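#struct-help
A.M.: can someone run this one for me? Single chain, 138 residues.
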Amino acid sequence: MKTKTTTTLLLATLFLPLSSFATPRDDLLEQYATAAKSASPAFSGFSAARGEKLHVTKFAGGKADTPACTSCHADSPRSAGRTPAGKSIEAVAVSVTPTRYTDPAKVEKWFKRNCNDVLGRECTPLEKGDWLSFVISQ
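D.P.: on it. Structure tokens below:
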């Protein structure tokens, strides 16, 4: 009887939709994709290459001491960073810091603060999805 129950449960899990196995990161990317599609019907997906470009580009719209993400987060996403005040920041790459981007409220808090500091505005859903795709791929 136990074997039959185990087999039935195993077979049932095979037919669950893949979305039941989505991670918080997947959920965030899906939210950003939905918002990006609303903003631009031409949206065709996120790009880690665009996310990398966003990570290293210097902008003039934000704070003078943080013109780029790399001002605090290091050139390599696999390296630890440092705030202007000297506080250490864990690497942004998921391969190095696997617990990153699993709390949506925390992700949004840091996007809001960091985008305003670097860009002088909030990031768009496309920018958030691209950057998140970049650091997840690292």
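A.M.: thanks! DSSP finds six helices and two strands in the chain.
D.P.: also worth noting: The longest helix spans residues 24-39.
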